[in-house]
TrEMBL record:
<dbReference type="GO" id="GO:0005509">
    <property type="term" value="F:calcium ion binding"/>
</dbReference>
<dbReference type="GO" id="GO:0007156">
    <property type="term" value="P:homophilic cell adhesion via plasma membrane adhesion molecules"/>
</dbReference>
<dbReference type="InterPro" id="IPR002126">
    <property type="entry name" value="Cadherin-like_dom"/>
</dbReference>
<keyword id="KW-0472">Membrane</keyword>
<keyword id="KW-0106">Calcium</keyword>
<dbReference type="GO" id="GO:0016020">
    <property type="term" value="C:membrane"/>
</dbReference>
<keyword id="KW-0130">Cell adhesion</keyword>
<keyword id="KW-0677">Repeat</keyword>
<dbReference type="InterPro" id="IPR015919">
    <property type="entry name" value="Cadherin-like_sf"/>
</dbReference>
<keyword id="KW-1133">Transmembrane helix</keyword>
<dbReference type="Pfam" id="PF00028">
    <property type="entry name" value="Cadherin"/>
</dbReference>
<keyword id="KW-0812">Transmembrane</keyword>
<protein>
    <submittedName>
        <fullName>Cadherin related family member 3</fullName>
    </submittedName>
</protein>
<feature type="domain" description="Cadherin">
    <location>
        <begin position="102"/>
        <end position="209"/>
    </location>
</feature>
<dbReference type="InterPro" id="IPR050971">
    <property type="entry name" value="Cadherin-domain_protein"/>
</dbReference>
<dbReference type="GO" id="GO:0005911">
    <property type="term" value="C:cell-cell junction"/>
</dbReference>
<feature type="domain" description="Cadherin">
    <location>
        <begin position="18"/>
        <end position="101"/>
    </location>
</feature>
Length: 257
């Protein structure tokens, strides 16, 4: 009978033929008397025909922990005499699992005007197949943008270009959305994608400005106070700087009044 053997099958394959066990009876030199084969004890994952053919009866998933099985095969002759051997069935891992993102945060709040190279996020992922493969994950940003770059080996996102909250499209919508891609090998393999967003917060980095610097206004000297004399277009609050002006005028609560 075959001495103990190591057998290998790939995970994910359908139930199928695995191996033919062979034995012979020394007392039956012509091999006319059939021998019968059994699994001891019976298995939920394998079956054996009476003539020694081993089959798998389930589809194996390496990542679920089913990666090795020890089977005892017993053979009997017509007189009830038995012999046994051991088969070690090993499940071979393949790259069939997509990477999983493990980053807890997908929305980030950052101030404007951060310098290039400033780290603003760290994207992390894991490969369920990585326990058996010498592999590494590669990160990239698929969204076209000029503000951020990502380290393809670590997943660290850094500022690549000045972010001005008061200019361009950010003035109306200060949200930057990106798609991050992670792959378990440069070509082919498995990949996954995740959406992240950055909310750019405004900071007080621009001086107050007036859209007009000289104003002239007249009214009757008999007009009863208080009344609104003038509305000055300005982007920020105003102050009266002249002592004489403060004696005659006061700024109202509305913008530029």
């Amino acid at each position: 009978m075959d001495v103990g053997l190591d057998l290998y099958i790939v995970e994910g394959i359908k139930p199928r033929f695995i191996y033919q066990v062979e034995a012979f009876d020394p007392e039956d030199t012509r091999r006319n008397i059939p021998l019968r084969y059994f699994l001891i004890p019976p298995s939920n994952n394998f079956s054996m025909s009476a003539n020694g053919i081993l089959f798998s009866t389930t589809e194996f998933d390496f990542e679920e922990g089913h990666n090795s099985y020890r089977l005892i095969v017993e053979v009997r002759d017509s007189q009830g005499l038995t012999a046994s051997t051991t088969l070690q069935v090993n499940i071979v891992n393949i790259n069939d699992e997509i990477p999983r993102f493990t980053s807890p945060t997908r929305e980030f709040v950052i101030p404007e005007e951060l310098g290039p190279g400033t780290i603003v996020a760290n994207i992390t992922a894991e490969d369920p197949d990585g326990q058996s493969f010498t592999s590494f994950l590669l990160y990239s940003i698929t969204t076209l943008n000029s503000y951020f770059m990502i380290n393809q080996l670590t997943g660290t996102i850094q500022v690549a270009h000045r972010i001005d909250r008061d200019a361009g499209e950010l003035r109306q919508n200060p949200v930057i959305s990106l798609e991050v891609l992670v792959k378990d090998r440069p070509i082919g393999g498995q990949e996954n994608r995740m959406q992240i967003t950055f909310l750019v917060k405004d900071i007080n980095d621009n001086p107050a400005t007036c859209t007009k610097f000289t104003f002239r206004y007249s009214h009757p000297e008999t007009r009863v106070r208080p009344f609104t004399s003038l509305v000055v277009p300005a982007l920020w609050p105003l102050w009266l700087l002249s002592g004489e002006a403060e004696a005659l005028w006061a700024l109202g609560q509305g913008p530029g009044k």
